[in-house]
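chain below, 176 aa
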Amino acid sequence: MLEEALYALAGDGWALALDRIAAPTYVTDAEGNVTYWNRACVEFAGRTPELGSDRWCVTWKLYTTGGDPLPHHACPMAVAIKEQRAVRGAVAIAERPDGSRRAFKPYPTPLFDASGSLTGAVNLLVDVTAEQGRELRVQAERCRRLAKSVNDSQASRVLDVMAIGYESSAASLAQG
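prediction:
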């Protein structure tokens, strides 16, 4: 259903339609250059994308849910364009220029012309910061319980460090 709605926006008036969507939504050309974004993107990303400069994504920095840097050229939108397929089921963390972070689910969907040639892609971002923060806190609690139950001091220390990492990630999401 979402894919059909996004494909329908590729026709006349798509920019006006995207402006009315409350969720951050942006469009790229076939090379991944960001060509359009709605107001919700600016609020979500904490910055105004730059035409001719931003590629693949409207965010400043990206991370995996594990905290590892996610290069823009490897983000879900880049995959969708390079492989010419919709990407679903991903979660990423966007870092804003002020250092706050937001978790989101992207829905990058390639757009094709009548002859089947790739013309670009549209991406709708769903903010899942609260859900991701709760999951990180649950993981931290699991690590703490396991650390208390093992009889190996080294394993217990490793689990405590993991719990601290999960709690730190949850705290950085809560700042957003």
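Residues 132-174 form one domain. The first strand starts at residue 25 and ends at 29.
thats it, cya
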